[in-house]
């Protein structure tokens, strides 16, 4: 075990230790007298000394020392009772540390580095022995305390786990701790007096990789849009890499695509995520993928056991997984044996008497008078009780629905294919399958072994194809538990018109246009019912292209209701996230496929560095299961394999197709030629059982090699894929999917950003690089709330929008004028949000925000004044607005009526006439969208805003504002007096004409509304133009780049609360 480094003055004191292995920095020593058959007197004395000591003082017989060249001091860093244990630690040191120590120039630094690393390993080793961190509150509480102190993240930021590791800066490793929380990964190191710490939000991670270099034999590389970081020297790198990938995947799915991807409910609640939850979730995802269970299934027990296999006449060891509705068994080696038992088929689960040959047996009896025997089950009593509890609940649920009447019977397509396969071959296959059923069972609960894989590769006979598809996908269980469900869906969905039904009608005649089954109303009607019913069942998916092709093939071999449940199984279980708005699942698998090409076909990958061409071609292979690219009879054989093996069969076959054409693809000169090569090859993949397939007679062999090469038997191609790529496992695929989903989601975010910038940039003058930075700031403010635009909107469907608190936060970061009064700045931010919230949905779009910012930084003087004017009139300024601002103009007071001593009117007549002439053009512009007049209280608010925009020492600007304010007040007073005089005259005329009290009251109230003190936007603008200092202020260029840089640092400090920021160069 690893030990806290303990100093040893003499490496071989009294000759008590013998050095077994050594290098420049480490010694592996054995206690003298231990393990020696012919010990000398020294060994006997040492052995006797060790034996007489009590257990607390005895020394373990093996140890590892850290030594510094040229020093007499060493440190014990590990010890063990067995040589195997110490050799394991020795190998870890050689593999992970020894190469890295050569980079240290000061050898004393080596000792500090290694001691720090060993202490970290001890802490991690203690953590690893815990079932969960919370089981040892002391250790986890200490780690949590350090996490909070070092990084100062919000209290809601939950720490999930932590690891001791090294972060590399160039060629120098920095030993520290990597903390993983629900939204961030954070690293802290304090070594040799130097502190290093940084935080990486999961939302910024674009790629995760395992890399290996000369200095880092095994490391984890985390890539963001700004830089890369490498972490190595984990005690358990596989575990750390898995947890990092899970947390990044969960965070991105929750933040960036919460509506498009299926995410378990417990993972949608970040506060509940723990390391144990992540481990359970990883197993659950694997089980759902391996057995292709419904996504709603919960995993309960995972137990090692053995099941009796009659065909092999022995017990096969493996693992039992229990869920809500299934008992699942998989052999230790994935694929050798799989057993799936729906609880709906189970009659009883009973314990049997235990013997030495059959320890802890359990008997599972099913409805077909068959029983399965499980042995070697730990905690058998509790396990059986839990399974029986779920069985009773399921039986009660089924009994509640038995009395319900069956729905209408489904329509069955009676039209068969015109071209039949060879009848003799078909009969041979049927006999083989019947023999298989008698030996391995028939139904969902049959034993699935390598033998059935060979039968599937040969092609399922047509008479059994529909039945076996239902069995392999377990759609038969859905059918049995939902009697009448499909008929009711058909009734509900028919007659509804929406986008999905329109797309379905458009594609009905494009499904299999050459097939006779869909050249008549019966087949088209059945296809319409299946697709429309599914769109009604799952509106999140609705209808996607390629579903019509798949449903057409299903209808050819299954009854209509069976075909519906097969479609449900494919869309919701076997190809999760494939058929959604952005086909995320298919794109993830394309990214996985590219990595498999690099791994399994390295020579092809070297010749074609950019594999995006191949993945774009293969996208249709995955979406349509090769139905759109292979001849029909060949493609159906692929569908057979898909229902048996799941997506693994498509990966294998895709690799086999590329491997068969590797030479031609390597010599291709462009994407079009590569496409032609693959298309030509797939067109010639036939079925030997179909008429028209080239014969393998000697005469045919004499044909040209090129012609012979073009024709390939689908069975041979499938068998070739199993032989060469059959070692690909479901576990590997799920792990790759987890990592590559990160890249796909981030690529979609980049596309969203590009679309938003492309639509906004023509309407603003903000430079492209600044606009991109503003988008990033906007996005970072947005992410914690997870607001998305209404899915019905066509304008940037996934554009981010900010609520009021978020907008105010970003407003404070980017507003160009100084923050003299926090209260008034908050007031202006509220008014600006109200002004920009044109839809009155309490959200501001990026487009509106960019337009507002463009006006502030790049707008003309009149545009800036117009914006300020609009902020001080309704709707931005509301009647109920509570403005606590204490900032008052020295010339104005808001708590008493405004009185101004005016000079004779004649002194201003000429000046006012000139102003009106100068603003003639501006008035014409205002005619289209005239701005309301501003009253006295609104103008006071406007003046307060102008004063808040300047620094206190800018006296010239304050004087200019005072002058303009006086001028506008005088202009308003002139208008006010003129209105009063005119209204009095009108009032007298009106009262005389009316001759009544009611008429006089009406005239007086009307005059009061019309006589209010007001000024117009044109008058304010004209007054401001008279002061050159104000003109210069509003026309002065503003440095948006510097403001953005400052905003980024402020924003990062607001989000992370870091004490210091590590620069990109650190």
From TrEMBL:
GO terms for biological process: glomerular filtration. Residues 459-646 form the Rab-GAP TBC domain. InterPro entries: EF-hand-dom_pair, EF_Hand_1_Ca_BS, EF_hand_dom, GRAM, PH-like_dom_sf, Rab-GAP-TBC_dom, Rab-GAP_TBC_sf. Keywords: Calcium, Cytoplasm, GTPase activation, Metal-binding, Repeat. Residues 981-1005 are annotated as: Disordered. It is found in: Cytoplasm, Cytosol. Residues 824-859 form the EF-hand domain. Gene3D superfamilies: EF-hand (1.10.238.10), Pleckstrin-homology domain (PH domain)/Phosphotyrosine-binding domain (PTB) (2.30.29.30), putative rabgap domain of human tbc1 domain family member 14 like domains (1.10.8.270), Ypt/Rab-GAP domain of gyp1p, domain 1 (1.10.10.750), Ypt/Rab-GAP domain of gyp1p, domain 3 (1.10.472.80). GO terms for molecular function: calcium ion binding; GTPase activator activity. Transmembrane segments: none annotated. This is TBC1 domain family member 8B. It comes from Astatotilapia calliptera. The gene is TBC1D8.
